[in-house]
Write a structure and sequence with these properties.
Blueprint: H1 2-12, H2 44-54, H3 63-75, H4 79-83, H5 87-93, H6 101-105, E1 112-113, E2 118-122, E3 128-132, H7 135-147, H8 164-174, H9 181-194, H10 199-206, H11 213-231, H12 243-246, H13 255-277, H14 290-300
Antiparallel strand pairs: 1-2, 2-3
Helix pairs in contact: 2-8, 3-7, 3-9, 9-10, 9-11, 10-11
Length: 304
């Protein structure tokens, strides 16, 4: 903001040059980056305490503040993506090229597709993205719809623009570090990584356009911690591995059958996900696959 004021002053002829620049064109004072903030996210017990305090519907915003806290944590949306811009912010942004019309209004009722279980968000530059709804996010949206039965398609989903006081009070009651609205976005990403979601997918859900480079820098250590936890019980010696014990009791007799079954399951999952993303009802073909037919034929053949 300070640099913008200086630029406007120079263009208007109020000042001759930037006072922070010397005659040789070099800065007189070097910019010092602030130290990185060490973020400690709440554990499961603390998060439940935050939700309980937010659900009391006290303070500024009432239940709307609790809705905003849960929405940011369960969708990973930026604050501006969730609630849009206030009239004051729109007027201020008009001096810098204006705000995107879609992003300015935030999430509206028509941006929610419960049939497909998807939510539309407008990120930086008004870029549209659809993200799947977690179970908690869907429950929250259904709760909002039930509490506001007269909502129109263009009505905002969030009823408050921000809730820093409520969020600070909730964190104090839970005994955890004070969180900001943006910290809830980190909370969302961290939980996904802890559940085993790969970082490029998390980056896509967050609306990053760099393919996961920034997410890898921010959350890469979490992914490594997750891998270390998963690798603790694995052994490099293949003789010690018992593939049959790791699979469900389905009568599989060999590694070949196990591989064929896993390939079929992956193909079925990809088919269902593709149908959901296009808004179609997935059709499951119950006829025996080629692999199943081969297995049945092998079982019928007499031993050599």
């Amino acid at each position: 903001m300070f640099r913008r004021v200086i630029t406007v002053g120079i263009e208007a002829g109020a000042i001759a040059r930037d006072p922070m620049m010397g005659g040789d064109g070099k800065r007189l004072v070097e910019r010092v980056a602030p130290p990185p903030r060490q973020l400690a996210l709440p554990n499961d017990e603390q998060w439940q305490a935050i939700l309980a305090e937010a659900g009391r519907n006290v303070g500024y915003g009432g239940r709307g503040a609790g809705w905003l806290i849960r929405f940011l944590a369960y969708t990973g949306a930026r604050l501006q993506e969730a609630r849009g811009y206030s009239e004051h912010e729109v007027r201020r942004l008009a001096n810098y090229g204006g705000a995107d019309p879609q992003q300015a209004t935030g999430v509206r009722k028509r941006d929610v597709d419960l049939t497909r279980n998807m939510l539309r968000l407008y990120g930086k530059g008004g870029k549209e993205r659809w993200v799947p709804l977690l179970a908690e996010a869907r429950e929250l949206i259904e709760e909002i719809f039930a509490a506001r039965p007269k909502m129109k398609a263009d009505d905002r989903l969030m009823t408050v623009m921000e809730c820093p006081e409520t969020l600070a009070r909730c964190c104090k009651e839970a005994g955890c570090q004070k969180l900001t609205h943006h910290d809830l976005r980190h909370f969302f990403a961290t939980r996904l990584i802890e559940m085993g979601i790969d970082i490029p997918t998390v980056a896509k859900l967050l609306g990053h356009a760099d393919g996961g480079a920034l997410a890898m820098k921010v959350y890469g250590h979490l992914r490594m911690a997750y891998l270390q936890k998963r690798l603790q019980n694995l052994r490099f010696n293949t003789e010690a591995i018992q593939p049959q014990a790791m699979l469900p009791s389905s009568g599989l007799k060999s590694n070949i059958e196990a591989t064929e079954t896993m390939s079929e399951l992956r193909a079925l999952l990809e088919k269902v996900l593709a149908a959901q993303s296009s808004g179609r009802q997935p059709v499951i073909d119950l006829k025996p696959t080629a692999a199943e037919a081969k297995r049945a034929q092998r079982k019928r053949l007499p031993p050599a």
